[in-house]
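Field: COMPLEX_INPUT
Field: COMPONENT_COUNT = two
Field: RESIDUE_TOTAL = 642
Field: MODE = joint
Values follow.
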Amino acid sequence: MRCGEFRTTYAADMAIFETPLARWWVGAFLVLVFLFPLVASNYWLDVINRIGIAVVGAVGLNILTGFTGQISLGNAAFLAVGAYSTSAVAARWDLPWPITVPLAGLITALVGMVFGTPSLRLKGLYLAMATLAAHFIVGFVVVHWDSVTGGVNGVSVPPARILALVFDSDKSLFYMIGSVAVVLVLFAKNLFRTKVGKAFIAIRDQDVSAEVMGVNVFKHKLLSFGVSSFYVGVAGSLLAYQARIISPENFPLAVGIDYLGMIIIGGLGSILGSILGAIFITLLPELLRLVTGALTGILPGTVQLFASMRMGVFGLAIVLFLIFEPDGLAARWHTIKNYWKLYPFSY
Amino acid sequence: MDFFLQLVINGVVVGSIYALVALGFVIIYKSSGIINFAQGEFLVLGAYVCLTILSIGRVPLVPAFFLTLVFSAALGVLLERLILRPLIGEPVISVIMVTLGLSSILRAVVQGIWGTDTRPFPPVFPSTPVMLGPVPVSQGYIWSIGSVALLLVLFSAFFRYSREGIAMRATAFSQQVALSMGISVKRIFALSWSIAAIVSAIGGILLGGIRGGVDGSLAFLGLKVVPVTILGGLDSIQGAIVGGVIIGVLENLSGGYLDPLVGGGVKEVAPFVALVLILMVRPYGLFGKVHIERV
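Field: COMPLEX_OUTPUT
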């Protein structure tokens, strides 16, 4: 009997699913997830929709930050670009969502690549500053370009639809967001089995060596900004369809920091990590709400503290993860899995 | 012409506050290569602590001021020990993220203790303005310019002549080499975080006095001075001062002349547009150490 896992070919090394059984597990899990709306209340559907959107955005940010090593603080701005381009396109030409969502992604990808150009010269901290500037500049444009964005009052988004099929309930949005998320996660997973994805990783690990090995560093950095912003733009677009009314208040700097928190807590450079992180950060305030709700009987006034508690717990989670589990939830998951794989005989 | 002069003088005085906050940034960066995104929260915390000592302890201003500085120093040491020390040698993203996480925690603590309403700050400065040429300037700003000038001289001398200052520069250059020369890098980090917290607290108290009130929005300065530090050069004290004044003047001028044309908000975005341009043209800033690395 085989105990443990032995890879004997490069193909096995590159496989998405380590064992055939894993494929079935993932399939079964997806089926379960897609049956979820049959039993869930609207509240939990809303939560899981937000998780889906966060997964798309976090995978996008992880492509840029975790896999290519380019730090971006401007994620909220790119979300905003995706959301506003959806509202502009959907309202004007009355297009179905399978066209508007990718279109919003493409527009965001272009904007992302513009703000990615400083990465030609800048690294690390300095690039983070440039993306911080991107956040404020996009915010300024959003507030002042009234005709498209509605300024500070915001703009409404028509419901998502395909022909006569309208996606306006939490349930229908769930299927829309879920299918987009599955496709994009699979694409990201496959991206890192290709030459381009490997080039991203090479740039992250050592940019000079990557250049020496024949990777066009600038081209791939820009590409990474493009792909990443595409994902974030799609997330923004889904957000617009879910929220139906978007205003600058939906995209404060804290949103971008939340996304960074997701990939840190989930695990940098891991698709699974982005998903786990997105779930963690989205569920965190919901759990806190439950706790504060339960505590109001004993300690009145906890509800008023909710906002600051959410912030404090978020910060604390980030700091603790960075200190005690820098590789995030994904690494923890692998440790647990490996322990059980050889269960009574693990050492 | 009067309008122009007014804008420039306002810019200089606002810039002096920026310079003070930027100084904290630069000191941490100079010794540890870390950008501290929690600088704005240090500022707010300093202001609130001083306010609390003043109102609850019924302590006069000057001792309260120094008690706040002691508190800030202790805070710096504590944070270094608990949060920064485990992260020595970790990648940039971790360190950036940990300061962002820290800023969330501090903001939560401040809101938890003092709430979100603006607390009135007792008048620190006499309210009669001083005439600077044709432009009236409030005395708080004069104080802030004075203290910035004093701190500039103090810290320039500190980094140039004192043992600790030289050890800090050595640590910034290479932690490994510094360690092998017998410098305690941990102590240097603790020292630089304390200094940064102290400088921010001074900024917070000055701002509280000038605005007559403290609330969480002061923390926004922590991000606002990012362009200042980049313009001046991340590792230059003179740069922080000059950058602060330039950015202050720039935002006042652009706000004053462009706001009527586009309908407001230019003042907030102008420093960041400048930031992008600086990063494109001269990423190491006006006075920063030129560190060339071609990719």
